[in-house]
Amino acid sequence: MKYYIIIILCGAASMALIYAACMESESNVISDRFVEIENHTSVTFIMGSDKQGSNYYSLATEHFLYNEEEKTDLVINSCRTVSDIITFLNDSKLRNTNPWSVVNIVAHGNPNTGMNLYLSDEGEKATPKRMLQAVLIDSLPKVSAHVMNSNTNVNVWSCGIGKNPLITMSLNKIFQPQDGDSVSVYCSPHFVIFRPDSITNEIRRLSLSYWPYYYQRGYRPSESEIAYEMSKQYPTDTLNWRGALSEKESKDLFSEEYHIPVSYTKIYDRKSDRPELGSKVQQLKWLKSQNSIVSQVENAGIPLDKFHWQVRKIIYTDLEGNKVPAVKAIGMATVVNVLQRVEV
User: Fold this and answer.
1) Is the residue at 194 inside a domain?
2) What distances in angstroms separate CA 249 from CA 66, 191, 206, 242, 339, one per listed residue?
3) pLDDT for position 44
4) Backbone dihedral angles phi then psi of residue 229, each to the nearest 5 degrees
5) Neighbouring-strand partners of residue 332
6) Is 222 domain-assigned?
7) Which alpha helices (H) appear in 110-237, and where do they start and end?
8) Which contacts qualify for 129-138: CB closer than 8 Å, 24 or more apart?
9) How many other CB atoms are there within 10 angstroms of residue 76's CB atom?
């Protein structure tokens, strides 16, 4: 039987899918990553736009425009792929004649599924596997030798990706200039957010340790229930879970929530091939029988039963414009992040 599978793990999820433990400390000399070189240009790439209810990219833009320690000469919002970044670095006349000094890349991401952007316009998502594949088959543009050198610092601010050796190795290879000096590439091992300072209101980049708690969207437990479950889930971490859940503005310990949608569509040859899906038991059985969606959910680190699922039969329009029978499943989960600031 011929069928197609379409899976989408949407962008808001990326903030919630990193390791459930204290992140290792960043270097105490992280400020060195932002040292400007006289007569050299620095640039920040903002690799996305905010969806309703989110201000991650807008706050990051403001931070790299105005923060005295980390601001760059340029903030670029027009690039959307890794290939776009390399093309800009190679071709932009805004660089003048000297190599770039600091190159920041800001994107949603996590160590399990990679960065929430594409490698190229016609390419794959920047997952650990696809990034490594791009290095091995040499499918991305090369960074020209004259645009970056050993004094260039490339900083990738994408939650926790520095925890995945495939990602760090691949990005190091991708941003090494062709026949040139070795460039220093740093990938943050921490959860990264941008938020206003409680006193000055200046937007700051924060590195955070992270503990997640998942539940079905629309079925939120009470704060006391969540705190109790988190104390059992993380028995060696003696945090004030209840206080963190109640606190939204604390400098050092607080919580945030994100919704995680997963969409999956399976196409069938005939309407009669589609299974019965009238009951929750039948729907769950069908979901568990789909290896692709089970694999995606497991890779994300979220149990299948933490999603609220809607499964229904539909008529799907394929790439050729044909209307074909299909089953579509939409799963919605919510993650509560307990976040603790890491001093770097």
Assistant:
1) no
2) 22, 17, 13, 14, 11
3) 98
4) -65, -35
5) 261, 308
6) yes
7) 128-137, 165-174, 223-233
8) 129/166, 131/166, 131/167, 131/170, 131/171, 131/174, 132/166, 132/169, 132/170, 134/82, 134/170, 134/174, 135/169, 135/170, 135/173, 135/174
9) 19
The pLDDT, as a whole number, for residue 343 is: 66
Residues 178 and 312 in one domain: no
> Where in 139-202 does DSSP place strands (E)?
153-157, 184-187, 191-196
For helices 128-137 and 165-174, the axis angle rounded to 10 degrees is: 40
> Is the predicted pLDDT of residue 29 greater than 60, yes or no?
no
What is the number of domains present in the chain? 2
Residue 21 pLDDT > 80, yes or no? no
| DSSP symbols for 276-323 | P-SSHHHHHHHHHH-HHHHHHHHHHT--GGGSEEEEEEEEEE-TTS-E
Nearest to 342 by CA among 210, 219, 241: 210
Q: Are residues 234 and 304 in the same domain?
A: yes
- Its domain, for residue 122, covers 27-189
pLDDT for the residue numbered 95: 93
**Angstrom distance (rounded) from CA 28 to CA 25:** 8
Same-domain pairing of 141 and 75: yes
Reported as type and span, the H/E element at residue 200 is: none
Look up residue 243 and give its two tokens. 């206080």
Residues 78 and 19: their CA atoms lie apart, in Å, by 30
Kindly report, residue by residue over 298-321, the tens digit of the pLDDT.
767 788 999 999 999 999 998 889
Report pLDDT digits (tens) over 69-106. 999 999 999 999 999 999 999 999 999 899 999 999 99
pLDDT in tens, 159-187: 889 989 999 999 999 999 987 778 999 99
For 25-55, the DSSP string reads PPPTTGGGGG---TT---EEEE---PPTT--
Q: C-alpha angle 41/70/45, rounded to 5°?
A: 60
